[in-house]
Amino acid sequence: MENITLAHGNGGRLMEQLINDVFLNYFDNEILYQKNDSAILSEIEGEPVISTDSFVVNPIFFPGGDIGKLAICGTINDLAVSKATPLYISAGFILEEGFPIKHLKRVVRSMANAAQKANVKIVTGDTKVVEKGKGDKIYINTTGFGSIKEEINKDDDIKKGDKVIINGTIGEHGLTILTERKEMSFKTSIKSDCCILSNFIRKVLNRTEGIKFMRDPTRGGIATVLNEICDRYDVGININEEDIPFQKEVKSLCKMMGLDPLYLANEGKVILIVDEEKSEKIVEIMQFFEKGKQACIIGSINQSEEGQVCMKTKIGGKRIINKLIGNNLPRIC
Amino acid sequence: MENITLAHGNGGRLMEQLINDVFLNYFDNEILYQKNDSAILSEIEGEPVISTDSFVVNPIFFPGGDIGKLAICGTINDLAVSKATPLYISAGFILEEGFPIKHLKRVVRSMANAAQKANVKIVTGDTKVVEKGKGDKIYINTTGFGSIKEEINKDDDIKKGDKVIINGTIGEHGLTILTERKEMSFKTSIKSDCCILSNFIRKVLNRTEGIKFMRDPTRGGIATVLNEICDRYDVGININEEDIPFQKEVKSLCKMMGLDPLYLANEGKVILIVDEEKSEKIVEIMQFFEKGKQACIIGSINQSEEGQVCMKTKIGGKRIINKLIGNNLPRIC
């Protein structure tokens, strides 16, 4: 059989075959082999952390990754920015009738590779099939499970003067998806920054002090994360346009397409709020690693009563970076 | 705004409003209020257990329940049959553009009610929006997280003579969905048996010994679960047709529609494999509770070399109950 049929989702023989040939084959681990509807794990130390995300990205294959890699990286990174060590992940598939099984295999292989990089096991799963026209090839939910052993900073810890750090250039993932979707008439070399951040973050955490908050600026971009920080901690944030790292091509393409890179999704970036005094040291340590090579300070916490994100532009002006309103950029992740 | 728009999935203001008005409002708990991309939980005792399921049932509202109730019950019951105590659950929504927000509220309220009955907290979530025609109203993934404190029976514990028990009548959920979908010209009183089984199962476990294996016969019905048991433990199973409990109306409707109730999904049933000597006592204790009132022994383990499920029919014949092959009954759950 070359394509997914409705019978692949009915609990019978074809589904069993799909599970054995595809999922067990690539996700191969002893817990999955329990073949239960639940995965029974070893006892864990520390506070458990759960994160869930559904992935509906269109197109499902894109430069730099695919929906499978994204589904693992996205959820693992959400755990990592909570200072959790990712341990296990579950995968729920919603397949559209007619989806080629070879494409499913490609996606599942990507998931297996990404999970291996993050040192997590895909321990349980579920497959549903919907009729043609009731889905779009493949949707994946991943739910990640990790643990936190260290002490977490208290929420009131963020204060005026704290620095805002990012580990590298922004906008690549969102721009990749949008240019792929628009079928641009020219070739670009831009590719998604989609990657596993947990090892990098763990190494930085082990070598530094003063990291108060982390968040990965995915859907809605860094503009959205910075606004969330303002809401959450009742602070304002100043950023400097000229400090924000971009790839040259991202900048020119954004200009051409009328896109604001501050709102474009990233899938391999992390925003950190850190103690002012320790900020230089943290950047230095981040730069030591591949995924932090271009780490830099892009702004700082102030205490504006309005709780706004304010960007000092290159020509010396000021621009308020608002939350995204009514902009239709879905299926980016 | 009355309907879901693409902008409800872009990470901006509309999405924030949806999260506050709908999800935080109904799922109300302190962990969810952390408003992180991850939920940080209290340390747990025992072995952690994870179970995941995506729900794509069509129609989303049906007699006896809706996709929201189903999404909580299905995942909680998967944990419960592993002897786990369900603790937390995550919810991932894939909404179709144009889906009425009042329907979303109804679904989310059902989820909240079911979670409350199971004494679990919905601690983290995610919302994606897909274009009209790329989904079907609403798909929900739930991933449940629980713990097992007691000792689990070893796999080789199942042997010839062990009894097969079910807690009540079969086929209602599957038949409800199919009759709803076929828009039958007459009224039936059949409704889905969809319910939370965790409290019932816990009470039975606390009062009995000798329960070796449990599984909820959802997609694929009891025929599928019994075949899975044969594969897993390398045994055969005999069941007696006249011992299998049915509602009268289910029986006659199945006859009329040419359906085999053994393959119809159940969402409030559990199959148990128990020690022969303790089986009568276990049935008695199950019958003590509302959800076990009609509990009965329907068969036993044998050691047929073929590892088949064999049913003794009412007229004294024998019928092999095979795995489901190529039958298109998707979107039942």
Order of helices and strands of chain A: HEEEEHEHEEEHHEHEHEHEEE
Uncertain stretches of 5 or more adjacent residues of chain A: none
Shape summary of chain A:
globular
Question: How would you sum up the major sheet of chain A?
Answer: 7 strands, mixed
Overall radius of gyration of chain A: 21 Å
Q: How far apart lie the N and C ends of chain A?
A: 29 Å
| Category from helices, strands and their pairing of chain A | alpha+beta
SS elements, strand count of chain A: 14
The helix fraction of chain A, in percent, is 25-40%
CATH architecture annotation of the largest domain in chain A: Alpha-Beta Complex
Assembly state: homodimer
Whole-number mean pLDDT of chain A: 93
What CATH calls the topology of the largest domain in chain A is Phosphoribosyl-aminoimidazole Synthetase, Chain A, domain 2
- Report the top-level CATH class of the largest domain in chain A: Alpha Beta
Count of all domains of chain A: 2
The greatest interface here is: A-B, 79 and 79 residues
Order of strands, main sheet of chain A, comes to 9-11-8-12-10-13-14
The proportion of strand residues of chain A reads 15-25%
CATH superfamily of the largest domain in chain A: PurM-like C-terminal domain
Count the DSSP helices of chain A: 8
